[in-house]
Input
Amino acid sequence: MGVDIARHEPLLAALGASAAGCAVFSRHGVPLLLLPRDKALAAATVDLYHPQTPAARVAAAALRSICRAGLQGLLPRAGRSGAQNPAATRLGALFSNPCHGVRLIAVRESPAGGGLEIVKAAMAADAAPIRAEHAALSGLAGVPGVPAASAIDARGGAVWFSMPFLANASRGVDVMPLLNAWSGAIEESAAENGLVRDLMPFVDDETRTGLAGVKVRRALVHGDFAPWNWRTGADGGPVCVDWEWARRDGYSGFDLVYSIVQRAILVEKVGADRLFGAVEADLARMGDGAAAFLGQSGLPLATHVKLVAAYRRWRGMV
Output
């Protein structure tokens, strides 16, 4: 029996692709990955998916092995039937969560040659995050850790842009050089910092009072600096994706603490009562570089954690 991906067919068509004959990997009955027949391209498609739980990581590893063996055809196919057009299916895709609209991240052979590229696409009605990320990438061109992006394209009711394919970062990736590069020399009062101002309605009175008169170091903030958004560039250095929440008026230390908090809550399932201890322990494991970096931020660790918790509330994560 085929898997219904009808809602994504217009978007695939706008990209010059077809799902006919492609395998589909579903999660809890919801289509997740569109896997073409080409083994290497199918395995690269699986790399677009970044599972957070141990069980999901095992499933992804098994699926990657299946694709490398060319056995993805054993999975359910897209739609009920249809002959595959090889010229129109040299594309694999990770579908967005249904509540995020008709969006996808695709991997395909670059039309210009020279390997694979990633395409971030959405139907026009759901394209605000695509446009926001493209604007961020364009404004940050040349900044360490920021991938190059093509011009944005809008045709067939869809919006998209492309970037070079980026391999998954290893678990031991060192992101401290990026965080140091993004941290500026300007110090300002917390009250003048744009990100802190946005978070003030979401913090308690104690935190708000504690920030009075405190200075922070202004920094470029990625906004969703979590391990599943880290990649490895062509030079082997770390690169980040998903820049739609980026801002230049953030403060130093935010991204680092956010990455630890996200991993603790979403991967390790740490409760609120143990969160500070988990962050403290993770920082200790990261070594002196991370501790020194936070020491220059102007804020104590407890305040960092409270501000990240406020950010998660602001972004609707809790």
